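testing teh design pipeline on a random one, pls ignore if ur not involved
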C-alpha cells in the first residue's frame, strides 16, 4: 500500500510540473504522507525533474527539511 502511494505521488508531481506553485504544494503534501525512506527516494526523483524543468528550482527549499 505504501509503495502505491509513493508511485502515485511521483505521477502527480510529473503531471503538475508545468506549474511551480502547484508543484511546491504537492511536494509539501508528499512529505507529510510518505515514510522517511520514501522521502529520500522522492528527493532524488524531484532533483531529476528539476534538471528537466529548471523553473522548479524554487521547490528545492523543501528538500532541505
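output:
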Amino acid at each position: 500500500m505504501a509503495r502505491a502511494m509513493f508511485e502515485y505521488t511521483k505521477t502527480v508531481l510529473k503531471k503538475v510540473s508545468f506549474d511551480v506553485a502547484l508543484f511546491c504544494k504537492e511536494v509539501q503534501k508528499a512529505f507529510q504522507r510518505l515514510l522517511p525512506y520514501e522521502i529520500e527516494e522522492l528527493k532524488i526523483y524531484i532533483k531529476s525533474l528539476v534538471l528537466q524543468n529548471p523553473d522548479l528550482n524554487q521547490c528545492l527549499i523543501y528538500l532541505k527539511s
